[in-house]
TrEMBL record:
The keyword Cell membrane does not apply. InterPro entries: CYSTATIN_LXN, Cystatin_sf, Latexin. Keywords: Protease inhibitor, Repeat. GO terms for cellular component: extracellular space. It comes from the Eukaryota. This is Latexin. Residues 1-65, 85-188 form the Cystatin LXN-type domain. The lineage of its organism: Eukaryota, Metazoa, Chordata, Craniata, Vertebrata. GO terms for molecular function: metalloendopeptidase inhibitor activity. Belongs to the protease inhibitor I47 (latexin) family. The keyword Transmembrane does not apply. Pfam families: LXN.
Length: 188
């Protein structure tokens, strides 16, 4: 999904924080004609830089059902003889191969959690690239991936390497089991 936002309004809540009211449109990244309107209220707590903002949202309409595509991707990855491993998605020209589109979509979902957990009023993170992804062998039904992603912090223009481990199953969704900001030299 891609977000197109309208101008947010905000209010101060004494001794608690700043609350923002947002109205925006989500667009399916694969089917550009599929959109839904959304509203959200985001509360950033005063003086607590380590706490994720509180978010309440509503979606007006239905998001596209991805069950079949999820099952197809899951079965493809489960049937691989060797664990998946890939680098530089998208490549330096912005291209993503069709077989890597589901990996990119999964990464967007997982990085959204990382971004939310680490956001402040003064940051604006965005997934720039999957620097490296490697599937971890498991004996249960879940797929596990270790990632090194690059987040672009739009305010400072900094590119931040971030490690995350992600569990996924089409019936249970995405879970980020660990994540941490990495030093710049992690890219070397």
């Amino acid at each position: 999904m891609r977000i197109f936002s309208r101008m947010p309004s905000n209010s101060d809540i004494d001794d608690i924080g700043h609350k923002y009211h947002l109205e925006f449109v989500l667009e399916d990244i694969f089917e550009k004609d599929s959109t839904v309107n959304c509203t959200a209220e985001v509360l950033y707590h005063l003086g607590n830089k380590k706490s994720a903002p509180d978010v309440q949202f509503t979606i007006e309409g239905e998001l596209k059902n991805t069950d079949e595509a999820d099952k197809t991707f899951y079965n493809r990855i489960k049937s691989l003889k060797k664990e998946l491993e890939a680098e530089n998605i998208p490549d330096s020209y912005g291209n993503v191969s069709p077989e890597m589109q589901p990996i990119r979509a999964l990464t967007w979902a997982a990085s959204g959690y990382v971004i939310w957990q680490n956001s402040t009023e003064n940051t604006k993170y965005q997934l720039a690239q999957i620097k490296h992804v490697k599937q971890v062998k498991r004996t249960d039904e879940y797929l596990e991936f270790d990632y090194m992603i690059l987040l672009h912090e739009n305010v400072s223009q900094e590119i931040i390497p971030w490690q995350m481990t992600v569990l996924w199953h089409p019936q249970h969704g995405v879970e980020v089991t660990q994540n941490s900001r990495q030093p710049k030299h992690a890219l070397d």
